[in-house]
């Protein structure tokens, strides 16, 4: 079995006054290529820290992260930025759309950062926005869209550059139940179509159960997979 993501004794500590706070304690996980996984646990259990380390957004204190066959543990900031640009997609709880850009312009950002052809990027952005049911809202700005619509734009943006792995941090955390279910269905459907690996952090038990692998943290330690 091939693993797109592996961590080895992954540890993250912070200095808190005269004492040291361990947020993540020697965590070992393996995520098979093309699979779906959920990281669950109570608030403060280390879920978002683990996600950030795996995505190259932060550096571990000890241990290693292997992503797509590369040990990214000691990557420079430039190398991490290139990795995120070329191979990783992100979806956040608060959408993180650019307020001064239209839905279509927001979706196009990751592909434009890769220097991809403008016409091809626009075609792909239109295709994805239509796929998430926003074909008639492409020229709308984030403030003109509901929360559920903004998250659909974020999903389209996450997939436009066809990432190998997609990290989602509480993707339905700010949505009502109806919007949450719609977003979940879209996320899994597009992920399956494109063969992307999906790793998400969630407090939603039902959403977590839809994934193939359940990673449970408690007090920074891995308690079950």
Rg calc = 17 Å
The low-pLDDT segments are none
| Mean pLDDT metric | 92
- The helix count comes to 7
CATH superfamily: P-loop containing nucleotide triphosphate hydrolases
Report on the biggest sheet. 6 strands, mixed
Derived structural class: alpha/beta
Described by the principal axes of the CA atoms, the overall outline is globular
Order of helices and strands: EEEHEEHEHHHEHEHEE
CATH architecture: 3-Layer(aba) Sandwich
Output the CATH class name.
Answer: Alpha Beta
The figure for the number of domains is: 1
> Approximately how much helix is present in the residues?
25-40%
- What topology, given as strand order, has the largest sheet? 6-7-8-3-9-10
The N- to C-terminal Cα distance equals 16 Å
Oligomeric state, counting identical vs distinct chains: single chain
Please describe what this structure looks like.
The strands form 2 sheets. This protein has a 6-stranded mixed β-sheet, sandwiched between helices. Strands 2-1-4-5 form a 4-stranded antiparallel β-sheet, covered by helices on one side. With 225 residues, the protein is an alpha/beta fold. It starts with a strand and ends with a strand. Strand 4 and strand 5 form a beta hairpin. The chain is built from 7 helices and 10 strands. It has helices spanning 47-54, 77-87, 103-113, 118-131, 147-159, 177-194, 205-209; strands spanning 3-16, 19-32, 36-40, 62-67, 70-71, 88-92, 165-169, 197-201, 213-218, 221-224. It has a single domain (3-224), classed as P-loop containing nucleotide triphosphate hydrolases (Rossmann fold, 3-Layer(aba) Sandwich), CATH 3.40.50.
């Amino acid at each position: 079995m091939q693993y797109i993501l592996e961590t080895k004794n992954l540890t993250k500590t912070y200095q808190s006054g005269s004492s040291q706070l361990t947020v993540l304690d020697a965590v070992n996980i393996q995520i098979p290529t093309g699979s779906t996984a959920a990281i669950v646990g109570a608030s403060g259990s280390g879920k978002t820290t683990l996600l950030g380390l795996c995505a190259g957004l932060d550096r571990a204190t000890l241990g290693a992260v292997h992503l797509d066959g590369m040990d990214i543990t000691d990557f420079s900031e430039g190398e991490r930025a290139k990795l995120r640009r070329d191979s990783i997609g992100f979806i956040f709880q608060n959408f993180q759309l650019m307020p001064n850009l239209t839905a279509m312009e927001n979706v196009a950002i990751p592909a434009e950062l890769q220097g991809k052809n403008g016409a091809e990027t626009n075609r792909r952005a239109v295709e994805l926005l239509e796929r998430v049911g926003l074909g008639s809202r492409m020229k709308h700005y984030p403030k003109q869209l509901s929360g559920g619509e903004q998250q659909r734009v974020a999903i389209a943006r996450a997939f436009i550059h066809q990432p190998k792995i997609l990290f989602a941090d509480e993707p339905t955390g700010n949505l009502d139940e109806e919007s949450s279910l719609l977003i979940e269905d879209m996320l899994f459907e597009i992920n399956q179509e494109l063969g992307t690996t999906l790793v998400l952090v969630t407090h939603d038990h039902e959403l977590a159960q839809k994934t193939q692998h359940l990673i449970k943290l408690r007090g920074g330690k891995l308690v079950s997979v």
